[in-house]
Design a protein that fits this description.
This protein is α+β, with helices and mostly antiparallel strands and 292 residues long. Helix content is 55%, strand content 18%. It has 14 helices and 7 strands. Helix 3 packs across helix 8 and helix 10 crosses helix 13. The longest helix is centred in the N-terminal third of the chain and has 24 residues. The radius of gyration is 20 Å and the shape is globular. The two termini are 38 Å apart. The mean pLDDT is 88.
């Protein structure tokens, strides 16, 4: 095996970790893949013999690439997650493949990714790298061109903004499934009262459709969509899946996905409910359900 093949093999071992870092930073699977590819290109142009810790070096490179992407969004005055939901990671209920498991480890649900979008690029990087991947502040400081103490303050500010915005999700998949099954039964029956009983009073429903993102807040307002839920769940086949590691649903029409439903469940009730039904985005996710 020559040096290039050996280096490529080492890089592939780190790829799932790097994509997980980039996904949490960007909320986009395609952009995360682009960031990882950029890290490979940089590695291929670098003297690998001078790299002492390849994993740390690659994480730093991916962090820098993602930071540049986030800053470019800000410079263009975009607010992508006010207009679009993050990309969901959809897998079979048995957990999917190992790379998907790395992507969704530590309960990084769509609701948390939406909150992360409210952070500044530097805050998001410090929070993701330190709190989710235990990267030391000395390493983070080099990425954001600040002192370690300043990097620590970035993470602390981010932590304060994130804390309390997303209730602790129910960790037991069996209990999640009970709530989602109850939702599905109530939806199919168009049962307003039954929906109210499983919705948190402050539930937030976000729908990312072809015309853009719209949001409904409060149990009564969400339950008021009972007729739409009934039409949505009876006109198509609905199957259980995992969405970012939590129990979710996918709606199918002639075998093609028409919607991905993600739930955040806490204390036996739905606190957040996200639907991705934009056909272009669903197509880009390349979801395959023949074996699901």
């Amino acid at each position: 095996m020559d040096t290039d093949d050996f280096l490529a093999g080492q890089f592939e071992e780190y790829r799932p970790h790097l994509k997980a870092v980039a996904y949490r930073m960007l909320g986009s699977l395609a952009e995360a893949e682009d960031a990882v590819q950029e890290a490979w290109l940089k590695l291929s142009r670098t003297d690998s013999g001078a790299i002492g810790n390849l994993g740390g070096w690659l994480t730093t490179v991916v962090g820098r690439v993602c930071l540049d992407m986030l800053r470019a969004r800000t410079a263009r005055r975009e607010a992508p997650f006010e207009q679009h939901l993050p990309d969901p990671v959809v897998s079979r209920e048995d957990g999917g493949d190992p790379e998907q498991q790395v992507l969704i480890a530590d309960a990084v649900g769509l609701a948390l990714l939406v909150v992360l979008e409210s952070l500044s690029p530097a805050e998001r990087l410090a929070f993701v790298l330190h709190d989710m991947f235990a990267v030391p502040f000395e390493q983070i400081a080099a990425i954001v061109d600040r002192s370690p103490d300043a990097a620590k303050k970035l993470a602390s500010r981010a932590r304060q903004r994130v804390r309390g915005t997303v209730p602790p999700p129910e960790p037991d998949l069996g209990r999640q499934r009970q709530v989602v099954d109850a939702f599905l039964a109530a939806a199919r029956g168009g049962d307003f009262q039954a929906l109210l009983e499983i919705l948190d009073p402050d539930v937030v429903m976000r729908v990312d459709a072809e015309g853009g993102l719209w949001t409904i807040r409060g149990a009564e307002a969400v339950a008021g969509q009972a007729v739409n839920f009934q039409r949505y769940t009876t006109a198509r086949r609905v199957e259980p899946v995992l969405v970012n590691g939590a129990v979710g649903l996918v709606s199918l029409e002639n075998g093609q996905p028409k919607g991905v439903l993600s739930f955040t469940i806490s204390n036996g009730r739905i606190v957040a409910f996200d639907i991705l039904s934009d056909p272009d985005r669903l197509e880009r996710l390349d979801l395959v359900f023949g074996t699901m």
